Amino acid sequence: MKIVVAVDLGHFKAYRITDTPTGPKITLIESSDYVDAHGKLSEKVTDKAGRFGYGKGTDKAAKGYGEPHNIELEEEKRLLKLIAEDISAVLNREKCGEWLFAAPAEINGRIIDNLAPGLTSRIGKNVSSDLTKTKKAELLSYFE
Question: CA 99 to CA 120: how far, in whole Å?
Answer without folding.
Answer: 9
